[in-house]
Amino acid sequence: MPSLPQRAVSMHHDLSPTLFTSDRASLVLRRQATLTAPFERSGSSLHSGRHATVRVCPAPADHGIVFRRRLTDRHAVDVPALWQYRESQPLSSALRREGILVRTIEHLMASLNALRIDNVLIEIDADELPIFDGSAKPWCEAICAAGRSEQAQIRRPIRMLRPVCVTQGRRHIRIEPGMGLHVTGHIALAHFGAIDWSGYITPETFEREIAPSRSFGRYMRAMAGRAFGYVTGKDFLQGVSRRSAALLVRDRVLGGMRLPGEPVRHRVLDLIGDLYLTGHPIEGRVTAHHTGHELNHALVAALMRDTAAWELA
Fold first, then answer.
1. Residue 108: what are its φ and ψ, rounded to 5°?
2. Which regions form coiled coils (predicted)?
């Protein structure tokens, strides 16, 4: 696939207000949902490089998203997917409870959020989820194959009442009142220039335009990071390769891009997963410039602490 020219790449995918108003009404009144059947997936992890098996199971209403780290046949620790348990880890989203770590959860969390799954129990036999091809597409396919079942209780999305913003130098992220969840993402990469994506996040747009995008990084930096992890014995990028990420060499992606502006789409993907650590779907307009996991989580923390900025619909 030809490399991107050194000019801005911009994508905008707004739905008409009339169409989206009906969807917004259904979102407010939508019932909670879980999986119709469990599913299991296995693969190697991005940072540890070790094999992991994940089993995602239906759960009752008001259960939420909970990771169950299975340590032995008789001992397991439950780690709720909530912002209070978030732990800073390099190049991933991670949770820790009772000393037990679960990391690289963002692609599964994004898929559950976008496909409107509220309640599941996620059993894992390692501390890191599989990376697969670096995208959320395998998780989306598994969720769709398992099926979605609505439950009796009503979803209670977070509805923004006023803006909340976090800034770190040139990086900033803002969420403000709006219908549904609308995200505008912007990044600028050397040799690629500015890349933008903007649109409403619905199951359809997520599956088609966001989920296939892969984790990305500069090839030389990724290989140096993998070598550093190997030499120091740290779990860092031991599973990175052309099969698990979109690796950039100057103005091209090895093997080509899957989607126009794939890197910014993946930043949007990660953001959708990180926002779900609020424990609720969110209605609002998000604008993110050069965001990453640390800034995403800073926004989530600022939002949850500013209880006057939102309400549960």
1. -70, -40
2. none
